[in-house]
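Researcher: Go.
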Amino acid sequence: MSSHTSKLVLGLSSAITIGIVSYVHLKQQSDREKMHEGVLRDIERQKQRKIENIYVLEKQNELTKQLKKELGNS
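Model: Structure:
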């Protein structure tokens, strides 16, 4: 009877161990994917900011030219 119980305990503990290891592995994989998605979002935000900054700079250059032109005519 004790041999049967020990086999049951060994099987159960092995199943639990395999379950825990599998869970940790899947969780790590999921975390890595989320971190990578965060990096991609950051890169996209940087590109968008760069586009906006270039637009603002071009507008400032146009206004500067316009102001110089108006001051030159005065």
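Model: The chain has a mean pLDDT of 95.
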